[in-house]
Amino acid sequence: MRVTPCQAALAGAIGLNLLLLYCAWRGPSPPPSCRPHRGVPGVTVLLRDFEDFENDLAGTARSFASLPVPVVVAAETAPYPPVPLPAGVEVLPLRPAADRPPPLAHPELHVRTRHVALVPDGARAVPGLLERMRDALEENPGAARLVAAPVGSAPLRCLELRLEPRAWTARYGPGAPGVCRAVEGTAVLLLRTRDLFALPFPLARPVPTALFVQAAFRNWGLRVMPAAFPAARRSPVSPHGRWKSENLAETRRRRLMRDLGIKREVLADGRERWYGCGKETARCFGTVHARTPQYLLAGRWTPPCCLRALRETARHVTGVLEAAGVRYWLEGGSLLGAARLGDIIPWDYDVDLGIYREDVGKCRWLAAAAAGEPVEDAEGFLWEKAAEGDFYRVHYSRSNRLHVDLWPFYPRGGVMTKDTWLGHPQDVEFPESFLRPRVPMAFAGFTAMAPNNARAFLELKFGAGAIENPEYPNPAVRRLGQD
């Protein structure tokens, strides 16, 4: 069939319109394919971990740009004071601006190569070493998704990294060759571009920690190269610069741990870093509804900082009560934790103690709270009468409302009873004989007083097998087996 010039022109116009519609659907991008194909061979150097003050950014960028490889400087805003970067080095501002698209909406527009190397400030390039790192990554693709090479003369220390999401904890330990999850020391880190930008926090700082933790969540391996990148000789940092750097590093690390859901790090040498609540902050969770804190619905247990504060509050309160001659005992879930673990149940959010109502006046802090005025003791714990009924609360502090509940019971015909019942299944009367005598019991790192037959007491309140069969506070909302 013969095609007339008019038909050919019409077909061409239709094709051009279809191409324009396709490109508009895919979003703005350079011609001719609407979006550059990710996977160009090579390695892009990404400079992320540096300070605006007293950095070696220009020297580092110049060294790697000479290889030559693409070099991208990623920062919240353009470095200030301005840095004389070599020609061709791209600056990627990460802080969103109302008049620009999101910075990482299309990361492939900035990193077009198949691999990316995150290079620390002050490193110097070695011809061929980035390519060797890339080859090490690709020669056994299933074994590792990250490759690390040291910067400077000190070798990297291989570490194991075990995440305990339910306990909000990251644990480091000595790693065996071939099974590293993290390294200690300054390093260049290389990975596939698609892997980096598939992470929820691809350019979070500090870069090594952010990558190691996110990689551990995904069970990615880490390979360590023995060959090293030289480190630049730099003038000593000024005392003021060191102070600023340390403060910024602490702020960034806290922000990163908050984003990653980690409130406690256990380091390889046994030291601990804490990132959750404290005496001067609010607790980590809000008001509890239906006896089910929000963290249980997220598949997590009580944050470790909250458990630490509860232990400290319980130890303090029992010490004050003993010194004042107030008879108390572990109650409810706290006694259950003591019988089962010698500690607070790992998903519990308060501590319960029973007291003899007639002893309230023996303790100055309880007596003041009974008069209706919250009172702060010499160690910053806040004693008050609960708004919900005739019982007392001792808070970790005015700011942090983690607390110990004190339930006043009184004997009536040989049975211990009280005036406020909140409708919990375990909230029942019991024979006073359980308290004659009270006995010491290990709990939360100290010795507390408890009923003399903990098993019978708990089975009266919770049912048979309560100690051996753990369950969440309100199984109708969330059961332990659902995690």
Question: How would you characterize the overall build of this protein?
Answer:
- There is one protein chain.
- The protein is built from eleven helices and 22 strands.
- The chain has 483 residues and is α/β, with parallel strands linked by helices.
- The strands form four sheets. Strands 13, 14, 15, 16, 17, 18, 19 and 20 form an eight-stranded mixed beta sheet that branches. Strands 3-2-1-4-9-5-10 form a seven-stranded mixed beta sheet, sandwiched between helices.
- Helix 9 (332-341) crosses helix 11.
- The radius of gyration is 31 Å and the shape is elongated.
Distance between the termini: 68 Å
> How much of the sequence is in beta strands?
15-25%
Low-confidence stretches: 28-38
**Helix content class:** 25-40%
Report the C-alpha radius of gyration, rounded. 31 Å
Number of strands: 22
Structural shape: elongated
**How confident overall, as mean pLDDT?**
92
Major β-sheet annotation: 8 strands, mixed
Structural class: alpha/beta
Number of helical stretches of at least 4 residues: 11
Keywords:
eight-stranded mixed beta sheet; 11 helices; elongated; 27% helix; alpha/beta; 483 residues; seven-stranded mixed beta sheet
Can I get a quick summary?
With 483 residues, the chain is of the alpha/beta class. The chain has helices at 5-26, 57-65, 129-138, 193-196, 207-217, 239-260, 294-297, 304-324, 332-341, 364-370, 454-462, and strands at 40-47, 71-75, 90-93, 113-119, 146-150, 157-164, 169-174, 182-184, 187-192, 222-224, 264-266, 272-274, 328-330, 351-356, 375-376, 382-385, 392-395, 403-412, 415-417, 430-431, 439-443, 446-450.
